[in-house]
Amino acid sequence: MNKELDKKPKVTADEELENREWIESLDYVLDSSGEERAAKLIKKLQIHAQKRGVKLPFTANTPYINTIPVDKQPAYPGDQAIEWKIRSLIRWNAMAMVVRANRLEEGIGGHISTYASAAALYEVAFNHFLRGRNENHEGDIVYFQGHAAPGIYARAFLEGRFGIEDLQNFRRDLQPEGGLTSYPHPWLMPDFWQFPTVSMGLSPIMAIYQARFNRYLEDRGLKKRSDAKVWAFIGDGETDEPETLGAITLASREHLDNLIFVVNCNLQRLDGPVRGNGKIIQELESIFRGAGWNVIKVLWGSNWDPLLEKDKEGILVKRMTDALDGDYQKYSVASGEYIRSHFFGTDPRLQELVQDLSDTELQKLRRGGHDPEKIFPAFKAAIENTDSPTVILAKTIKGYGLGEAGEGRNITHQQKKLNEDELMIFKERFDIPISDEDVSRAPFYKPPDDSPEIKYIKERRQELGGYLPKRDVICDPIKPPSKKLFDEFYEGSGEREVATTMAFVRMLAKMLKDKNIGKLIVPIVPDEARTFGMEALFRQVGIYSHVGQLYDPVDSETLLYYKEAIDGQILEEGITEAGSMSSFIAAGTAYATHGINTIPFFIYYSMFGFQRIGDLAWAAGDIKCKGFMIGGTSGRTTLAGEGLQHQDGHSHLLAYPLPNLKAYDPAYAYEIAVIIQDGIKRMYVDREDIFYYITVMNESYAQPSMPEGVKDGILRGMYKLKDSPLKDTELHAQLFGSGTILNEVLKAQDYLAENYSVAADVWSVTSYKELYRDGLDKERWNMLHPSEIKRVPYITECVQDAPGVFVAASDYVMALPDSISQWLPRPLVSLGTDGFGRSAGRKALRDFFEVDWRYITLAVLASLTWEKKIDPTVVEKAIKDLDINPGKANPILS
Ligand SMILES: Cc1ncc(C[n+]2csc(CCOP(=O)(O)OP(=O)(O)O)c2C)c(N)n1
Ligand SMILES: [Mg+2]
Predict the structure, then answer these.
(1) What angle do CA 552, 553, 559 make, to 5 degrees?
(2) For residue 879, how many other CB atoms are within 10 A of its CB?
(3) Contact predicate 764/742, CB 8 Å
(4) Nearest ligand to the C-alpha of residue 110?
(5) What is the rounded CA–CA span in Å between residue 810 and residue 792?
(6) Which ligand is located closest to the Cα atom of residue 619?
């Protein structure tokens, strides 16, 4: 007996009578006046009790039973028998795919148990809900749980979209004929997968912002209103990721009734139970209900219905609610006898309830998430729900159907191999028409095209608009923005001192007015618009709000008031870089999802970009997202006073690994103009699968006009900005500068000429990453083509005949300039900002990090000594003259 239950106070006979009277009264109201009236009455009672000082226990939970009662279940519209057969075949093929892959190559991996637990959820959705995209309907958007990929492939196999050889090459992308990728990766299977989901937590947050972005497009008149849904299938363990739950209030606040989460609550994650000592479904219910979602629990299969019907006193419901997830996991592997004694044995009345059921029948009591009869009503209620998002919490068993091989076991997530006996049991349990002799080979099985199963599956998909998942890009290129738009930036600012951030914001304001691209621009800010001086845009284009502006803004009298509007263009996301990045991804992939070329500009504090949301940026690459990430207040010494949590000296290094990201650290407004103009062309006219990271700074200085012939160099990563005025001298140097540190380099150039007769040429390096990539590419080609004329890296081309020593100075870590040093004719000395920052002014910071004009001068002189061009005493003297302390602590470590 459960001791906890014993401790509870007994209900007296009087209380029992009172309970019954109240329940009868409520039943009377329900029968005579309906549910709405009953709900109102309970609400009234609640208020009255509260006024009288009754402390009502707070709970956002409902009992641990199905949300939709049996009498509210719509009849199942499909052919259950045939659907079971189809589902069974998909189960088999999905399992066989993993088993075979691991026989072919030990350790290749794959997952059986995730899909095994989710098969019925997916199949009910595929056969009755998920709409494909065609000329009549834009189709639903579906985020598939990454680890369930084998099941999705196995279905596509039955649909005739893949052949045996495709399945055979699961997880072997590099086979000559290609393979099926381990998980959903649009980069690798661009005609199939739409959304990369396998890094857990990303798909839920991306789905939320995708659903909101769909509304944004509708409210702004960029797409027709639609009843299309965004479905996200996720794991219960996955809900532990902060990204999964971190944005759920946005979904309810924005009334996203186009959003449905299906959480496959198999109560297990990788290592063991999700909440062995608790109940993940109840925990999630209270979280989602508290956040304003419509929560539908699908807990118990149809064969529990008669028991619940008989359970007039609610003892069974109470027992269901009391049992822990750890217990339920045990029941999924235990004998009927154990279930009888442990679950039903806590109360004689419960034992009586199941006395007519055999142990086998007890074992077969199904969970709701495996029962289409229960899943269908939940999905139907979800698509019919209005005004709020819906989450379906479906209780399942991990590894369902694997039996001894893993069903409900803690090892199940890692199970990749089944022995002959286990395969035989699987085959028999799901009635797979394979001969006993063949079973051990784990062959794939597909019924003939004219079989009822294949006909059914095809008919269902036809009825629902076509196959899913499918990524088909139907989108025309854009007309580029007017060339004139960028002219003022090419001309420079004259004497006026302007930060590149201001120049960029002005460029953005002009782009928003452009007749070709204005409407397509999506500015995204995580509560940082004022930091970047963007507040004028609030008024110019408005902040998007689905409901418009329901209040009179405090600054309504002012010109630049905080204007929210239904057709507002700015996505002001609040303080969430992850949410903003999810919006960026939704907007940057609208060309593929909706055939709309929206151009996102995500403007944020560069320190809180890749460092914080690097994994979403990786997903953006995978999904072929387009757009511009603008890292504001960038540079470790450019941002004064903020200290080490704000000063970014490494985002450009973090940009290196992202394969299709172009990263630029421009110094001047004209450089930004060239990069953006070209970026729009490459992404939206030429349709390249790339996106951009551009850093902008808040240090003001005169923006020069663009020299002749430098556009190509700006884009390729460097160009000669200024030759030394000095001609007749023995001493030479080549100086590389980027961002605002370019100004320090220019100052050093003058100083070196005037004081040391060193002729230093200055190069503006706009992108070390571009130079690095180009160098690697040329080097690789040369390695592979030893007898052909060598290809020369662009950087070598630029400086191979340039005389003197090489010094680079950057507001980022030294690894950036160091990355290209191998392609220079002589050694490079790099100055950068490795180390934690400090709260200080720019001058002090540049001294601290040793990147100002004095240190550049020193680096040049020291390099010339090493080259034996000048005497070390000259450097000794310079150190004194420049007021440099040689005993100063190394900023990398201090
Ligand atoms: C961000 C991230 N961390 C860790 C993993 C590794 N991982 C893959 S599946 C898994 C457990 C998944 O559990 P759950 O979400 O409950 O899914 P289930 O397989 O049970 O349906 C883990 C930890 C991952 N894919 N992504
Ligand atoms: Mg799980």
Answers:
(1) 120
(2) 16
(3) yes
(4) 1
(5) 25
(6) 1
Residue 46 tokens, joined: 């609640």
- The identity of residue 92, as a single letter, is W
Local structure of 329: helix, strand or coil: helix
Are 82 and 456 in contact by the 8 Å Cβ rule? The answer is yes
Bridge partner list, 760:
733
Question: Using CA positions, which residue lies closest to atom 25 of ligand 1?
Answer: 199
| Beta sheet of 259-265, edge-to-edge order | 141-143, 230-235, 259-265, 390-395, 294-298
Residue that is written with structure tokens 């944020």 in the block: 604
- Our measurement of the distance from residue 781's CA atom to the centroid of its chain's CA atoms, rounded to an integer in Å, reads 35
Give the atom of ligand 1 at the shortest distance from the alpha carbon of 113. Answer: 19
- Going across the sheet that includes 521-525, the strands are 571-572, 521-525, 599-605, 628-632, 691-695, 661-664
pLDDT at site 60: 87
For residues 23 and 466, what is the distance between their CA atoms, to the nearest angstrom? 49
Pocket of ligand 1 (CB under 6 A): 114, 117, 147, 198-201, 235-238, 264, 266, 268-270, 274, 398, 413
CB 205 within 8 A of CB 578: yes
Question: Left, alpha or beta for 139 (phi > 0: left; psi -120 to 50: alpha)?
Answer: left
- Structure confidence by residue, pLDDT tens digits, 526-538: 999 999 999 999 9
Quote the tokens at residue 540.
Answer: 């110019």
CB 810 within 8 A of CB 739: yes
Residue 114, both tokens: 């995730």
What pLDDT is recorded for position 869?
97
How far is it, in rounded angstroms, from Cα 636 to Cα 647? 5
Q: What is each CA distance from 22 to 15, 527, 584, 827, in whole angstroms?
A: 11, 52, 54, 89
Q: How many CB atoms neighbour CB 821 within 10 A?
A: 16
Question: Residue 116 Cα, ligand 1 centroid: separation in angstroms?
Answer: 15
Q: What is the pLDDT of residues 677-729, one digit of tens each?
A: 999 999 999 999 999 999 999 999 999 999 999 999 999 999 999 999 998 89
Q: How far is CA 381 from the centre of its chain?
A: 27
pLDDT on residue 10? 72
Phi, then psi, of 742 in degrees rounded to 5: -55, -35
What is the DSSP-derived secondary structure letter of residue 682?
Answer: I
pLDDT classification of 472: cutoffs 50, 70, 90:
very high
**710: enclosing H helix or E strand:** none
Residues facing 693 on adjacent strands: 629, 663
Q: Give the angle subtended at the CA of 53 by the CAs of 52 and 56, to the nearest 5°.
A: 115
Q: Check if the beta carbon of residue 149 is closer than 8 Å to that of residue 131.
A: no
Cα torsion at 464, 466, 471, 476 (round to 10°)? -100
Spacing, Cα 785 to ligand 2 middle (Å): 50
